[in-house]
Amino acid sequence: MTFRKYLVLAGVTLFAAIGDSLLAHGMQQVGNISLHRLPDIVLTILNPWVALGILFLLGFFAAYMTALSWADLTYVLPATSLGYVLLALIARFLLHEQVSTARWLGIGLISAGVGFVTQGPALTHHPHEDTGEGAPEPVGSRTES
Amino acid sequence: MKHAYTWGAILAVVLTSTTGDVLLSRAMKRVGDVGELWRRAGLLTVAGRILRSPSFLLGIFMMALAFYSLLFALSWADVSLVAPASASLTFVANAIAAKIFLHEHVDHRRWIAALLVAGGVALLAV
Q1: Residue A74: its chain B contacts at CB < 8 A?
Q2: Which chain B residue has its CA at the smallest distance from A91's CA?
Q3: What is the CA radius of gyration of chain A?
Q4: What's the predicted TM-score (pTM) here?
Q5: What backbone torsions phi and psi does residue B42 show, to the nearest 5 degrees?
Q6: Residues B4-50: pLDDT tens digits?
Q7: How far is A48 from chain B (nearest CA, A)?
Q8: For residue B125, which of A21, A99, A119, A142 sits 20 to 30 Å off, Cα-Cα?
């Protein structure tokens, strides 16, 4: 794992959390969309918050695809779950919402999970060779495909 | 009855988004390290290779299905049940699916990580 790759993982995390927050904020301004007037949903992108949120989510998708091109799914998903923690912290410190004890516990569990998975190797080395600590960079190790 | 619809829709979200993630992951592994390919052959080659991958397109389709299943689930139950239930079950389902279909080496560390994150996400909703 290089510094650049950690940056991509940070991008996955940040873009998703920020994009979701922007979308949520924008959709609250737009208000309820009735099932009878479904085409209205197209017009919601005229809301600047929604448009910006979509841009961030596109950035998230690009970063997510990039990460999946060199790391396992079971590495990328837990490693980028800090976004949930970020959302809770935004709720607590920017939006001044109450964060319950159970939520802090949840934040702790997620952080522990992230710590666990990022200690290990990012990519499974095929064929069936056990990857240990400090496995070499995955370049050229893809024997399948 | 309402319960059955809610959990049926949550199950649909978990299955479709897991299938989507597995397909996308497979597509990107076939494409190879995007950064390297970009330096070597340019952005157009990268985009072309990704967009021509059937796994990628099918993965996107499954993600769209997951999104609509989520909307359906949300029309039956509160977001505070649907969102964490589907998100945390998806973490566990992904670990299982990645082991079976992608032959990823899911060791103790990754199992524990998936379970911790799944539990944490569930607790966030309390």
Answers
A1: 94-95, 98-99, 104, 106, 110, 114
A2: B124
A3: 19
A4: 0.81
A5: 95, 160
A6: 888 898 999 999 999 999 999 999 999 999 988 998 988 999 999 99
A7: 22
A8: A119
